Amino acid sequence: MRKAAAGFLFVALLAVLLGASSLAVLRSALRSQDQLLNGYMEDVVLTQELVTAHTHFMHQASDFLLLEDARRLDALLRAREHFGTVVGQLTRHEPETPEERQLVEHFVATRDRARAVMDHLIATRREEGPASGPRLLAELQPIRMDMEKTLNALADHERERYWTTRHQARADSERALGMLALGFLGTVVVAVALGVFLVRALRQRVRAESERTAMLEREHAAHRAVEERQALLDLVIEQSGDAVVVTDAKGIIQLFNAEAERQHGVSRQQVSAPEWAATFGLLTLEGHPLPLGETPLYRALEGRPVSNARWLVKRPDGSVRTLCGTASPLRRPDGTLVGAVLTARDETERLALEQQRANALERLRSTAEFRERFLGIVGHDLRNPLNAITLSARVLLVSEAFPERELKAVRRIASSADRMARMISELLDFTRSRLGGGMPVDPCLADLSVICREALEELETSHPGSRLSLRVLGQGLGEWDAGRLSQVVSNLVGNALQYSPEGSPIRVTVDGRAAREVVLSVHNEGAPIPEDVLPELFEPFRRGTRESAHHGGGLGLGLYIVQQIILAHGGTLGAESHAGDGTTFTAKLPRENSDRAATLAN
To answer: Which pLDDT value is given to residue 26?
Structure first.
């Protein structure tokens, strides 16, 4: 039993020793593979860092070529030095394969060629100035693309080598575990336990490496997306039709796009808030220096948004531009103020055009006012000689010293003088309505039916043979200017007589059945008014064109004066004309004068 136990123990001990040695050999192999994988992963990360350093180096080179200053040149040199450091780290190991050696040699050759091109571009840019920036940037683009292509090929090779080695290591580990299981059947429990432990650790390590690789790829993709969005945003801002100015929280200018440079006549300068007015020529609309507290951008920095603000900018060439803009504070999601943004547009040309239009309108208004005043003066001055002619004609008419032939000429003189008097009266009324802001009226209690009856009696006397009729419905009392309304009735009925056949009836209706208004209508059976004339019927100096007009025309102011008198009473005037139905003018007059009612109420 002891021998058996000793043998068992010896065999067990031997098996344990063999298993331990085999396990040690396997663990050493796994450690070597792990170190190899770590080295390959470091190469992958280093190539990725090299791509990032090259991208940063190219961005700094673009900024230096387009916007040269000492700070950008220093940033370019630092980026170049960092890129060289990363390149030195990558090339410190001897290439393991011919393919890797070829990639590294091609990269080094491309880098040396890019270094020579970059030295030439920097020297040319500093010698020729900002005007050469776009051209030099175009010359940089081919070597930049070659470098990116070479770097991407090198990064792809490192990632492929890492994944190939990782899969090979995993296959070798699985084969070693199988050999241990076949070689140590007597130590199944220990081998199984050890195998489970090793497999679990290996899987965790593989999973961690996979997650790390995926994370690097996501970061790289996110970095590319951010760069693309930033490039697009830069293009939008630079090509915007409005000026865009951005400051940080301390009021220092950080962004000044091309339109802002055109409007102000100067390029971007990182000046603080107190220096804005002096640096960019900011003035008030009166031409005085714009105080800092009144600048829209400063008010936005204080947390107060500004909309449609207007100010002046005096450019270095002496020209002054008028700007209009909007300023808003910039805040983080937590509400912290990080700066302000101003968008402005140049309104100099638009304001100049508006001023020219206003001056032209003022000249037209002055011309029209002078013409109307002249008409009023002429009409007023013609009254005295015309009254003398009328009075003399009436004296001659009652004289018995003239035969019938001479009396006929005197009657013609008297009739023409009366017509001229009416024209002058219309001309004066027109002038009063245009210069005085409306037809002057003096309302008092009156009966529209009585006014119409008296006016028709006068018209029947001057127009013998006419058929005039008056129809009254309801009550015709109201607050009106009796003289002006008599003028309305005379003009409307006279117009109807002028454009109606001889002997046709003219019907005048006063409808006072409503409580608040009285309706006056004048109807004749003449030819209809053309449709193209109706919209302009009440315009001044508009004369009728109907063929049925059989009396001499006036100035074309009668209907205009009628409309102005009705409007002065707060009423409305309209006309309807249809073939077969004749023409009807309808005036609606409120019984109570609104101006007088407002005075009594106060």
So the answer is: 63
